[in-house]
Amino acid sequence: MADDLIYKIALSLIPGIGSITAKALIAYTGSAEQVFREKEKALRQIPGIGSILAKNIIQSEVMSRAGREVDFVQKNGVKALFYLDADYPQRLLGCADAPIVLYIKGNPMLNCPKAVSIVGTRHATDYGRRMVEQFILSLAERGYYILIVSGLAYGIDIQSHKSALRNGLPTVAVLGHGLETVYPAIHTAIAREMVESSGGLVSDFLSHSSIDRTNFLRRNRIIAGMSDATIVVQSARKGGALVTADIANSYNRDVFAFPGRVGDIFSEGCHFLIKSNRAALIESVSDLEYAMNWSATQSQPDAIQPCLFYDFNPEEKLIIDLLRSEGETAIDLICLKTNLPMSKVSPTLLNLEFAGIVKGLPGKMFKAL
Question: Cα(128)–Cα(260) distance, rounded to whole angstroms?
């Protein structure tokens, strides 16, 4: 296990190799370990890997740092999830730039049936905090078991975590640094409570990573990608919450924004999102239920009647067998595990969906019916 993990972590440390390229390397070579065992000539033949990246892989000196991280993970009760692991957040798999390794503290249900991200300004007003509390209370009162995702920052983020804990809902904080610390330190007690309940902490940063602004902007893609919808409560015209909303839109996820009072600086961002059609206006859980069709799908069966008799071709059989054994699966993972190209998988899934045999889900996820 440790020997395998060290290669997965090491791959994420090679200069010039981001998560998209790393996944391509694994798809062509078969494993993270095999990437490091390939000859430079073979690496250069992989699409997107030129001579510079091939040399970076061959000449990289990342194994010692990866080894230290494996030690940290094992000694501190941290779980390292590889993107092909069953526990990896399936919604995140639908995002091309999802990290190949996620570090988890606690035992959160990252694949909770429903998940929303709640983000906003660090300078939350009483109005903003009240909106968060009322919204999460309403979710709990309606019987939803829903994962609340945020970033543990001051303001709207910490209010979201506190309200979730107070109302018995699981909550996860996505951090912009390693799991050896909590920033800001004043939120350490809340972070500990999340870890000890049904929530936890998530990061794609190694332990002892520097804490700087760019890291927090980078982690916003995980906040957006782990959820069915992103909800912005209060934001100025510029800020991390609007970055998260833009990323969520790029992932084809639903985005909502609470309106505020005209002229308030921390209403300007929400109003901009609504006016520019980047977010739908939301005032209550009822608005979320209507937009997400949650109230309709809770008690009603799927509208499509599956075909009782269907003659599968070889590609269809590969895909449906995978979905029946794996459950909800991202389209990228379907391509990888069936060894079929996207050009073949995408139309095949469409045909199976029309036939009522599979169902498409948010985040380019699919499941067998």
Answer: 9
Cα distances from 253 to residues 44, 95, 169, 228, in angstroms, run 36, 10, 22, 6
Cβ(304)–Cβ(272) under 8 Å?
no
Q: How do the domains of the chain map onto residue ranges?
A: 2-63, 106-297, 314-368
pLDDT confidence band for 305 (50 / 70 / 90): very low
Q: Which string of b and e fits 223-262 if b means at least 16 CB within 10 Å?
A: bbbbbbbbbbbbbbeebbbbbbbbbbbebebbbbbbebee
pLDDT for 307 equals: 47
pTM (2 decimals)? 0.77
For residues 219 and 178, give the distance between their C-alpha atoms in angstroms, rounded to a whole number.
11
> CA-to-CA distance for 112 and 131, rounded, in angstroms?
23
In this predicted structure, the answer to whether residue 295 has a pLDDT above a threshold of 70 is: no
Assess if CATH 3.40.710.10 describes domain 314-368. Answer: no
